[in-house]
Design a protein that fits this description.
With about 450 residues, this protein is mainly beta. Helix content is about 10%, strand content about 50%. It has one domain: Porin. It starts with a helix and ends in an 8-residue tail after the last strand.
């Protein structure tokens, strides 16, 4: 019932508001002289998929539909363009049921970038920082049925880990091979290999959702990998990439920089047939991703379709995602399915929904990496979330919103004795991000 309500509300409103005529595009002239700081809003989108790849406004080398807006502050000099974008939530979480928890915490990230053009080539330096290690106490925040990574030497269950302080340190080099072909290189001591869609923290379809998806470790948990090297080639609307990286996920000590030999690989195929559409398929071999299961290698497969539609006074962004892990140790297969959509309307209002159907393992009940206990799938959990926030001017040059989100869960019979039949969660939050717009120079 909840799933039908969420889908009906989000997609009906999306159709109603996106029927409004699209705002005109304002192209900026080439050759800015001197220095300029630009905080104005612009819905200008890249002219081609190749242009969109060169902008590198997401994490790693991931791409979104070319019409996707991005709120950022930009500074132009004669030779360089500097960009800053990010987001922070201050959350008050309350969950019901025998295993529900409550907490006040903040999740956040900030991404400074610098770009310079050299003839037909572009050089980009980018870093991403998160202060989660200080603002998420106890090494995780409560989230029913969530699994992945460790805290205090035990698996995190019913909770989501904070990100590391250093989420990305990367250099990117793109060079044109003809007008419609781009050769790209990406090197990052910590960064994002060619695997899955844009990570949840950066997706426009999840931009207002303060909590991570339950399927995070089935689809996009590799977005903070160590020692990443990626090469990609883009021609017209098609992109092929291959990455080598260290497969171990970050440990529970979030302030340091983890490193290791390149022992894992991934490949990704991306297609963007129109400015409003993008899809990807990826496959990866992860060597010992889990700290508490060092003997276990994983094959991960993902597929996703993204849709974005800007319109007067708003934007509509949606994603369909499938992720699958197969253990090479015991053959266990776990799948996760996700649909999420965020609708901005009347400029300052956002409504969103997320639906998940995710396999969960006996680690939820065992709660520790017990010797002799083999991890196995014991049921599939459904989660339906719906939320709303409204932007309220508070601080100059920041977009500030106050919002609330409710999540309802469908519990398999195997987990009802531990969780109850109808657990739910509510989170109230304050969201801030830099106020600005996306600008592209052609």
């Amino acid at each position: 019932m909840y799933a039908r309500v969420i889908v009906t509300v989000i997609f009906f409103l999306g159709g109603v508001f996106s029927g409004t005529a699209q705002e005109p595009t304002n192209h900026l002239p080439m050759g800015h002289q001197g220095m300029e700081i630009d905080r104005s809003h612009s819905d200008e989108s890249p002219e081609t998929f190749v242009d969109q790849i060169e902008s590198h406004t997401g994490s790693g080398t991931s791409s979104e539909p070319g019409s996707t807006p991005m709120s950022m502050i930009m500074l132009h000099t004669d030779n360089w363009t500097f960009m800053l974008h990010g987001q922070a939530f201050l959350d008050l979480q309350q969950q019901s049921g025998p295993r529900g928890g409550d907490k006040l915490f903040s999740t956040n990230w900030i991404m400074p970038m610098a770009q310079r053009r050299f003839g037909s080539s572009t050089l980009t330096f980018r870093t991403m920082l998160s202060f989660d290690p200080a603002t998420v106490t106890g090494r995780f925040y409560p989230e029913l049925f969530q699994q992945g990574e460790a805290a205090f030497g035990k698996p995190i269950v019913d909770g989501q880990h904070p990100h590391d302080l250093l989420m990305e340190i990367a250099a990117l080099f793109d060079t044109r091979i003809g007008e419609k072909t781009l050769l790209s290189f990406y090197v990052a001591p910590v960064g994002d290999p060619a695997m899955g869609p844009l990570a949840y923290a950066h997706r426009p379809s999840a931009a207002e959702n303060p909590l991570s998806p339950l399927g995070h470790h089935l689809a996009d948990s590799t977005h903070i990998a160590d020692d990443v090297v990626t090469v990609g080639i883009t021609h017209r609307a098609v992109r092929l990439e291959a990455s080598g990286f260290h497969g171990r996920e970050p440990d529970e000590h979030r302030w340091d920089l983890d490193s290791g030999r390149i022992d894992s690989w991934s490949g990704r195929f991306t297609v963007s047939p129109a400015a409003n559409w993008s899809g990807q398929f990826s496959f990866a071999h992860l060597t010992s991703p889990e700290e508490l299961h060092p003997e276990e290698d994983v094959l991960r497969m993902t597929a996703s379709i993204s849709y974005n539609r800007p319109f007067t006074g708003g934007n509509w962004a949606s994603l369909l995602l499938w992720g699958r892990n197969r253990s090479l140790n015991n053959g266990m297969v776990a799948n996760g399915y996700l649909a999420e959509s965020t609708l901005q309307f009347n400029k300052t209002n956002y409504i969103w929904g997320r639906i998940e159907n995710v396999d969960r393992t006996n680690e939820l009940l065992v709660g520790t990496a017990t010797p002799g206990v083999e991890e196995r799938v014991i049921g599939r959990v459904q989660a339906w979330s719906i939320g709303y926030d409204h932007e309220v001017p508070m601080v100059p040059h920041l977009q500030t919103a106050i919002g609330v989100q409710a999540t309802f869960y469908g519990v398999p019979d195997t987990l009802k004795p531990a969780y109850g039949s109808h657990p739910a969660g509510v989170v109230a939050f304050l969201r801030v991000r830099p106020k600005g717009g996306m600008h592209h120079h052609h």
